[in-house]
Design brief:
The chain is mainly alpha-helical and 76 residues long. It is built from three helices and no strands.
């Protein structure tokens, strides 16, 4: 399949040298490198983040507006 992409000049020069060294066309080399990068990305483990939490207990009854205001004012 043919397509057009913009590749940095320095990267393209490295790809050209490598394709000659490996005896592959530029398209073959780029396809192999991209396929390898995609496969490696798929192998990365997913990270399950567990946020630590603990019960801090009841500090103020939020149903009691006077106690709530007192707690908020005390924070200042």
């Amino acid at each position: 399949m043919r397509t057009t992409i913009d590749i940095d000049a320095v990267v393209l020069e490295h790809l050209r040298h490598r394709s000659k060294r490996e005896g592959k066309t530029l398209g073959q080399l780029v396809s192999e490198l991209l396929a390898s990068a995609i496969a490696q990305e798929d192998r990365l483990p997913s990270v399950d983040i567990a946020w630590p939490s603990t019960n801090l207990g009841l500090r103020v009854d939020i149903e009691d507006k006077h106690a709530l205001y007192a707690a908020l004012d005390a924070a200042d």
